[in-house]
Amino acid sequence: MKKISYLFLILNLSFIGHSQTDKEITRLVTPFKIEQVNDTIDFIVVDSMINIKKPIFLWCQGSLPMPLYGEVEGYGYYFFGGGITSFDYRKIVKNYHLIVISMPKTPLIVKKENLNTLYQYVPNGDKPNEFSSDYIEANYLENYVNRANTVLNYLKKQDWVDTTKLVVAGHSQGTKVATKIAANNSSVTHLGLFAANPFGRIDQMIRTARLDAQLGKISWEEADSTINSYYDLCSNANNPEYLENYPHLKAWKTFSITYYDEWLKLDIPIYLAYGTEDRVADLCDLIPLFFIQNGKENLTLKRYLRLEHNFFETKADGETDYDKPHWNEVMQDYLKTLE
Asked: What pTM was estimated for this model as a whole?
């Protein structure tokens, strides 16, 4: 039996990220908690006026157990928000109830002693590279989708939610979660995908090794060995015995399936945005061909030149230029299509 409680907090928050450092704001957010037998789902509505009826914009964050709020030495609590602080999310809040779900088995708010240098949650601060066993067990695609649908089912019953429109969008790993939500939830009306890999996850490692060899960064012998090691990883991740003994392989198995076939089944508007310097999203260039061949016209593709995985510009040497972010532009372009 579920127990649903709801809290209202006013938190003093600050933007984190190269694009918005030292820019402090005060933001009203409404945290929710859905308690289940084997899981507690924390999520937030990034809005102080939940009594105003608006549609839902569900943001699916990327990988790894970063909390929505974290305590940073010398600054207090910062708002990470699953990546939404990379862009001006207030423009989303203007017309939508913006929803972000906490990562599985990851507290909503984490103290500094339980954050590693990448602001990821670790149960033991003396072991900054060891995630909790509960998180590792829960870190697989179907769990993210089930948790999201539980939240959406709760939200659609609220009188402050406009159920005629439901936007689900995500970045990186979040695009995989968003895709499966849209494929399994008929209430979804719009799908936004940012820096997606249509072919899963392991393939990008293989493509990277191959390109590095072609560019002379590594030898072909090293690339050959690396590629074969990823075949072994894929084999182990699809072996039930290995999965039972090595639960971290569940993430490799479930997040490494193809996704473009799910996109082709959908008739709702799909927005696909990616940077040309993003190895993860290389194969997005092929997706329009599949839609054309299947007579589908519900895909909007936006290619951002010379931008990387997180939509920063790249320098001549290929390194990321953190002084030149473009997430605001990327998200604003998407919001225009939703209008």
From this structure: 0.90
